[in-house]
């Protein structure tokens, strides 16, 4: 449980962090440290240099930009959870951030660290995927926006280049759309055994739907068969029955692969029911 030796630098700005990263080989950014430090203690990660970006307060914000909400990558989970802008316009993000780990984790962990870590068991990747969010990476050549659908590439792997810093996450305002993040965990405040993020547009008939699954494969996954069935007029029960189609969830200490498939179907039905209740309420002005 003791990490391998490493050097440590504190970044004074994003540009300084990029400079310290160099080509990114053997170097890691440190944000809240709640995923990286455990990995280093287990020697699953052995960076030669840690670049601490945890004090870059100008990357800790939530602000409205037209039809979008922009979230700074260094925003802590507790600040995402309590953000008035998110609670009003994109409550699936604030709700989910409020269900990440326990209060200590939420006071240190950041939304950017959670996404950049690329853990398929993390909660926020599925939410950002279901929202068709965008992730803004900054490197020596400037900024580039990466659609959430292209960001998560494997277990602990993302489309971020080793010399890039994730600076911002953009999500749409949801208007009257219904939403749900439905999580099953073995213990309170634990990682999801399986969870489902659902966003449903339309009142009565479904015009658009996005469903993303946590811990059902190497990355967060879209349940596209469910989405197509809903838009084609299928009932929630019939659509949810397709939730595990095409997935190959892992077997581990929390659950077998088959049990995860069962959970995906049950939780998708519950998530869609909750999303459709919320969408009906908002359409009635509730
Ligand atoms: C006890 C415990 C329980 C937890 N429970 C949950 C849970 O229920 N659900 C859940 O989703 N998560 C859970 N987590 C994980 C937690 O949410 C972490 O805070 C989060 O995954 C990582 O965020 P961080 O800021 O701590 O990142 P760090 O650990 O500092 O970094 C993680 C990775 O992201 C990289 N990184 C960080 N910031 C950036 C950036 N701006 N740009 C580029 N790369 C960056 C780092 O280099 C590193 O590779 C738990 C953690 C603990 C310790």
Task: Give the arrangement of secondary structure elements.
Blueprint lengths: L6 E4 L3 H8 L5 E4 L5 H6 L7 E4 L9 E4 L2 E5 L4 H5 L2 H6 L1 H7 L5 H6 L2 H7 L6 H7 L3 E6 L2 E6 H4 E3 L2 E2 L6 E8 L5 E7 L9 E8 L6 E7 L6 E2 L1 H8 L4 H5 L16 H27 L3
Parallel strand pairs: 1-3, 2-3
Antiparallel strand pairs: 4-5, 5-10, 6-7, 6-10, 8-9, 11-12, 12-13, 13-14
Flavin-adenine dinucleotide (FAD) binds next to strand 2, helix 2, helix 7 and strand 10.
Fraction of residues in helix: 25-40%
Gyration radius, to the nearest Å?
19 Å
Structural class by helix and strand composition:
alpha+beta
The end-to-end span amounts to: 51 Å
Number of domains: 3
The poorly predicted ranges are: none
- Please tell me what the overall shape is: globular
Determine and state the CATH class of the largest domain.
Alpha Beta
Which kinds of small molecule does this entry bind, naming each only once?
flavin-adenine dinucleotide
What pattern of helices and strands is seen along the backbone? Answer: EHEHEEEHHHHHHEEHEEEEEEEHHH
Strand order of the largest sheet: 4-5-10-6-7
Structural overview:
The chain has 286 residues and is of the alpha+beta class. The protein folds into 3 domains: 7-52, Uridine Diphospho-n-acetylenolpyruvylglucosamine Reductase, domain 2 (2-Layer Sandwich); 57-172, Uridine Diphospho-n-acetylenolpyruvylglucosamine Reductase, domain 3 (2-Layer Sandwich), CATH 3.30.465.10; 178-283, 2-Layer Sandwich (Enolase-like, domain 1). It is 34% helix and 24% strand. The protein has 12 helices and 14 strands. It has helices at residues 14-21, 36-41, 77-81, 84-89, 91-97, 103-108, 111-117, 124-130, 148-151, 224-231, 236-240, 257-283; strands at 7-10, 27-30, 49-52, 62-65, 68-72, 134-139, 142-147, 152-154, 157-158, 165-172, 178-184, 194-201, 208-214, 221-222. The chain has a 5-stranded antiparallel β-sheet. The chain has a 4-stranded antiparallel β-sheet with strand order 11-12-13-14, with helices on both faces. A hairpin with a 6-residue loop joins strand 13 (208-214) and strand 14 (221-222). The protein is globular and about 55 Å long. The mean pLDDT is 95. It binds flavin-adenine dinucleotide.
């Amino acid at each position: 449980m003791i990490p391998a030796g490493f050097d440590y630098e504190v970044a004074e700005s994003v540009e300084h962090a990029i400079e310290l990263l160099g080509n990114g080989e053997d170097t890691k950014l440190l944000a809240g440290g709640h995923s990286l430090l455990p990995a280093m203690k287990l020697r699953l990660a052995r960076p030669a240099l840690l670049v601490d970006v945890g004090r870059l307060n100008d990357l800790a914000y939530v602000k409205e930009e037209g039809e979008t909400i922009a979230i700074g990558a260094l925003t802590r989970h507790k600040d995402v959870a309590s953000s008035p802008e998110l609670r009003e316009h994109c409550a699936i993000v604030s709700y989910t951030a409020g269900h990440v780990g326990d209060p200590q984790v939420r006071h240190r962990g950041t939304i950017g660290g959670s996404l950049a870590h690329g853990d398929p068991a993390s909660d926020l990747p599925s939410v950002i995927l279901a929202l068709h969010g965008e992730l803004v990476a900054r490197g020596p050549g400037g900024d580039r926006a990466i659609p959430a659908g292209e960001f998560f590439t494997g277990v602990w792997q993302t489309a971020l280049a080793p010399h890039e810093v994730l600076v911002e996450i953009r999500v749409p305002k949801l208007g009257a759309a219904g939403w749900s993040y439905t999580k099953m965990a073995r213990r309170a405040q634990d990682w999801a055994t399986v969870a489902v993020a659902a966003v449903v547009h339309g009142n009565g008939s479904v015009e658009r739907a996005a469903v993303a699954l946590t811990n059902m494969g190497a990355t967060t996954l879209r349940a596209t068969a469910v989405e197509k069935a809903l838009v084609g007029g299928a009932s929630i029960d019939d659509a949810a029955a397709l939730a595990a189609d095409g997935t190959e969830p892992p077997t581990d200490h929390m659950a077998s692969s088959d049990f995860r498939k069962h959970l995906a179907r049950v939780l998708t039905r519950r998530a869609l029911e909750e999303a459709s209740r919320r969408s009906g309420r908002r359409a009635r002005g509730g």
